[in-house]
Amino acid sequence: MKLSKQRQSKNSVLILTSLAVLASPLVLPLPQAFAQTLTTVVNFNGTNGAAPRAGVLAGKDGNLYGTTSAGGSQNRGTAFKLTGSNFSTLTTLVNFTGTNGTNPVARLFQASDDNLYGATFTGGTNNLGTLFKLQKTTFTNLTTLLNFNGTNGANPAGRLISGSDGNLWGITSAGGVNSRGTVFKIALTGGVPTILVNFNGTNGATPLARLQLGSDGNYYGSASAGGATNNGVVYKLTPAGAITSYNFSGANGRNPRSALIESDKSQWNS
Fold first, then answer.
1. What pTM value is reported for the model?
2. Residue 32 in this model has a pLDDT that exceeds 80
3. Domain of residue 199, CATH code
């Protein structure tokens, strides 16, 4: 069995490959059954990007796609592709300029139409972030789908997901009616977003991680602040926008910044 995990450091993309030996549990303890080889495939040098903050996406074409939050021709970040047998060939797809966005910190997402979608934390018309599309199949043509303006959210940090309704769903870490972040959805073609949640402190604040669409048809997420003791929350959101929040108290954890995952129909977070 072959398992692959992508990690990142500030200026390098790493691929960790583990070969698991399928044998009787009596033969070797589990930690000894894994032989691990770490290979640095790219060193970022500023010109080709710097400070990647999100994981890479395994594209449907077999290549890896990602972003850097800085570097590139304008030092405002890049979108890139890794190709080759060991993914060591980097091609810069887009240099962010400020006008088309700055500082992408969320992972790219490939939707059912095979285009890549992403977000920039700042930049755009109001310097509050953008949503963008990279057109298949070369992914070098960037279309801005939305300029955040504060009222409709600001500073998106988590990657987009595909909702059960076919729209893109996402979060902003700031902005909205209460300036504490939002949950929104928007068509693949862009346009005016639908704001499903305006975080108000009580139900959470400053969400930083993507949503998770559960097998029950609801959406799950975390907010790094807010709640009863301002230690953050995890929440359930119905497709209609009804939110139920569960509070962290400090004793049971605080300030969640990662997305939930579903396992055995339970939602998990760390």
1. 0.86
2. no
3. 2.130.10.10
